[in-house]
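re: ur question from the group chat, yeah i did fold both. here u go
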Amino acid sequence: MSFAPTATAEGQPTTCRCCGRHAIGIGIGGPNRDPGYLCGECILLVEELKRVRRMDPYELAALDGGVDAVGEYIGSIGGLTELADFDEHQQRMLVKAAWTGCADRLREVIRKGDIPF
């Protein structure tokens, strides 16, 4: 898997190398490479992240976190099963649940040191 750049051409942080959320100016990249900027939450995992060589298996585990979070959200609003039946706020909250569920599970798996394969 190739990582998306985490900085603009001018070197400003864009996306977190780990979870894809908004990054800040701390990274795990090296000289002459992408800085590997991280978000505030993933910075707390910096030592564990240095050991991760392939994110693909971790991303698959993270998807399970997104599925769990979406299931919980849908259960909390009750009765709606078709996305078209959700109002705009509910649609956005569903996507937020998926996004944060994935990121939270990814950090959890990395923090535990479990290799998910």
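okk and heres the other one u asked abt
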Amino acid sequence: MFSIYVNNTPDSNKIINSTSNSVRIYLNPSIELDTKKKWQLRVLSANIVYCEPNITSSNNKFSYIVDGVTYDKTIPSGTYSLDDINNTIARITTAQNSSQLFAFVGNEATSTVIVYFAQPNTYINLSSDSIMTLLGFGTAIPRIGGFLTKTGSVESTQKATLDNLQLILVKCNITNGSYLNGGQNNIICGIPINANPYSQLQHEFIHPSRNGIFVDRIDNLEISLLSQNGENLDFTNGGQYEAEGWNITFDVSEYDSKTLL
């Protein structure tokens, strides 16, 4: 049996992509596998900082109107809870207009969001690149608000999608036989999300999946972390910061074909 430890810390024997979700390590010496035997790769444990941003350049705009004046703001990319969004927009409007103009409250029964307007003649503009799409507000109408009295509220017509990552898929270049969305792929395991944003996601596999290896010599190993939809994760917060860390421990072991799951 051979143990392999992979992380996304830069080193001379590895190539890391721009979002730091994919690492190719070069083994020195290579692992020579006995061709008379069958071999499998298993994930034993994983430690991953849960930092996949739900606000990026595609949905980070916040535009609002107060007494006929439009203010266009940009929300920094990051992993936001509803409270984080509330606090960020409150700081923006307080700095710009000396008042917290909006309050966002979640309706847990329907997974929608209610926006409360604290001032009359105030609107929030809706667009495809607005943070409001994350909160369930579509673009069928150009704006919401405009109440004549101080109080007023609008509830989103769709569910909020703050938690857009439910599962981390681990992909490896030396295995095959698994399927993703009906197509054959080399996904070797799935790691459920059981931590808060920017917390350490730790997982040990009691019954690790057995993945057959199709090479006789392991010169390099490429590991990629994907979303449940097969999309690359981003550990750099849109390239703004140094990458958050992750590490995974594997074993390469002999198996009997009758036991391969």
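fwiw on the second one: The CA atoms of residues 35 and 79 lie 46 Å apart. The helical segments are 82-97. idk if thats what u expected
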